[in-house]
Amino acid sequence: MSRTTDELPRLASPETIAELSELMARAHTERRTVAVFGGGTAFDDHPPVPTPGLLIDLTGLAEVAERSSADLSIRAGAGARVSALDRIAARTGHEILPDLPADRIEAGSSLGGMIATAALGPRHLRRPRIVETVLSVTTVGADGTIARTADGLSSALAGRSLPSVLSGSWGTRAIIVEAEIRLTPRPASQDFVWIPGTEAAADLLIARRGPDAVVIERPPGSPAATIALVEGESAEVEAEIGFLTEQIPGARPCARPEWWARRARMPVTISLSVAPDFLPGLLETVSRLEDAIGYPLQLRGSASGRFELGLGAPETEPGVAARVVLEHLRSFGLHRISARLLHAPAALWDELDAWGPLVGRRNLQETKDDLDPHGLLSPGRGLGGI
């Protein structure tokens, strides 16, 4: 594509980083807003994407570098599917180190999308966040600048890690085009334990060994239960499962739940960050709210404090009910719980205070203004609607 003779399209599928850089440079000159997608598995999260002046499909940037069996990392284009990367890693008995949502992987989520959304799965108790496993990243900035370091995007970011600048930015700061991510040996065995109630969850978090995941699941209108995952060498896993079932009343081995590592998905989903000692209060509050508003509520997440609360509204518009739930949860204060809208019909984002109090919002806005002063990259999709 020539910068001077070809008209800038509304939809583009670049096959090289250089081509993407040129597209962004021209969009910057023409002040076109830009949205990018890979697998598209997070398009329904955060505020809906306004119709962009340029929509960029990154699936053409999916090349995977050949790795030797001794390497504990894999490098690929941002559009590479995570499922494909995991299959490649499995050939040498490895897997991607951070834990990621299974439903997004199955739906075709891309490497760049997982980093940009700071995706997280239930095994994060013993595994690092995805940003901590990214060894290097290449980006294209809002003005087309190709950068492999933070100060390559902006001198104001000198000394900062480029992956940390981009993780959780939802495509609002720069476009991830390539990344190298760490691998880890695949566990030989995985087994699950079902435990009635949630009383044992806090103790499991500080246990002598500790399970690899401790998840609370409260289906609509039903009591909550705790599911623990133990993985590792077969003999060790068997011994730990035996120990848990002997020590915890009512605990029993179970198959992998069909919902495991999947997000709570109902007409409205609220993301919660909860102080672990407030978990009993959260469960009591959810039951009380469910009775009060007359809508089914589903709570799922890690006992460490990261939850999704699904609000079901199959017959009517859920705006009033969602507002009641958000305001009531926020009334406990940020020291106990933080609640923000994650997934909802498009109209609700304008009706509700979707974000609530957001610590550090000024710094987030300053970084956005520095990297994208014209606000062209995915406007409104970042934390706080930035």
TrEMBL record:
Q: Where is the FAD-binding PCMH-type domain?
A: 1-186
Q: Name one Pfam family in it.
A: FAD_binding_4
What is the name of the protein in this document? FAD-binding oxidoreductase
The record's keywords, sorted A to Z, are: FAD, Flavoprotein
Highest taxon, organism lineage: Bacteria
Please report the organism this UniProt entry assigns to the protein. Answer: Brevibacterium spongiae
Q: Does the keyword Flavoprotein apply?
A: yes
- List the InterPro entries: FAD-bd_PCMH (IPR016166), FAD-bd_PCMH-like_sf (IPR036318), FAD-bd_PCMH_sub2 (IPR016169), FAD-linked_Oxase-like_C (IPR016164), Oxid_FAD_bind_N (IPR006094)
